[in-house]
Amino acid sequence: MLAVKQIRLGAVGYLNARPLVYGLERVPRFALRYDLPSDCARLLHGAAIDIGLIPSIEYLRGGPYCIVPDLSIASRGPVASVALYTTRPMADVRSIAMDTSSRTSVALVRVLCARLFKIQPALESRGPDLEDMLAHCDAALIIGDNALLVDHATVRVPSAISPQPLIEKIDLGAVWTTMTGLPFVYAFWAGRPGAIDARGVEALTRARDAGIHEADAIARAYFPDSPARQAVGARYLRDNIKYYLRDEERTALEAFYRYAAESGVVPDAGRLRFF
After folding, report:
1. CA-CA distances (angstroms) from residue 208 to 17, 137, 237?
2. Which of 1, 194, 241, 275 has a Cα at 20 to 30 A from 250?
3. Is the pLDDT of residue 162 over 60?
4. Does the pLDDT value for residue 33 go beyond 70?
5. Do 21 and 151 fall within a single domain?
6. Is the pLDDT of residue 160 over 70?
7. In which domain, by residue range, is 171 found?
């Protein structure tokens, strides 16, 4: 009997991706690794993995790719883990520090600056250290576990204008849904045509179907030494993150790609192709 060729699967290491990979470490057809979202994209573009849980904007920057159907990391309304932290009203923001682990969220900020906030800030890439970011820029984009868990009220920001400016958290999932009436799709599984067969797609779908019912167990395993973080994580997985890619999410993706093209983030909006 011929051995089944393993599919090299690149997943995001953040908490919000864990329901999509629930139990996949035990599935022989997959060789699973975890990376930052930006690294998942880099690895897929470089053919170091076969299927990657890539930032949605990266679909337009490589390939051509196909999307694994009906699986994504999305939100409808507040997402809690993708946020701008500002020391002044957005209309007055002149510089934004961007989390270097993010790509879709950076694109989303650029779209919102052009379409909603009506500003043209300078953008600066920095690691996800909120105090350092706000020491250098008027606002900061942070994503993932760092945004979910940071207590921005305790961050000290040096300022020549005010002893301690108030820091506002702007949830970008909520802002997008308010602006468009649509969910937002942050990431999905994608790969080159032929990279995965129907049985592989079924295995990924089964993992999602099992994982979405195990929020408490996933949060306990992810934060083994912190009951407080376990509670935050389980609530986040249940209430904020959605794991489907259906008609409304596809419409949202097309809108995001269209706005990104109009804002000069990508050359064109492309089209959605699925396995």
Report:
1. 10, 38, 12
2. 194
3. no
4. yes
5. no
6. no
7. 82-180
- What's the CA angle centered on 161, arms 156 and 167, to 5 degrees? 40
Instruction: Establish how many alpha carbons lie within 13 A of residue 200's alpha carbon, considering only the half-sphere containing its beta carbon.
Output: 22
Q: Tell me which residue of 181, 175, 184 sits closest to 250, measured CA to CA.
A: 184
Question: In the structure, what pLDDT confidence band is assigned to residue 3 with cuts at 50, 70 and 90?
Answer: low
3-state secondary structure of 122: strand
* Distance, C-alpha 213 to centroid of its chain: 21
The pLDDT, as a whole number, for residue 158 is 67
What the block records as the tokens of 95 is 């510089």
Answering whether pTM is above 0.90, one says: yes
The verdict on whether omega for the bond into residue 64 sits within 30 degrees of 0, i.e. cis, is yes
Collapsing DSSP to helix, strand or coil, 231 comes out as helix
- Cβ atoms within 10 A of the Cβ of 114, count? 17
CB < 8 Å & 24+ apart, contacts of 23-32: 23/207, 23/210, 23/211, 24/203, 24/204, 24/207, 27/203, 27/207, 28/4, 29/4, 29/199, 29/200, 29/203, 30/6, 30/200, 30/203, 31/6, 31/7
Split at pLDDT 50, 70, 90, the class of 156 is: confident
Please state the φ and ψ torsions of residue 120, each to the nearest 5 degrees.
Answer: -130, 70
Helix axes 215-222, 227-239, angle to 10 degrees: 140
Same domain for 69 and 191: yes
CB 163 within 8 A of CB 51: no
- CATH label of the domain that carries residue 68: 3.40.190.10
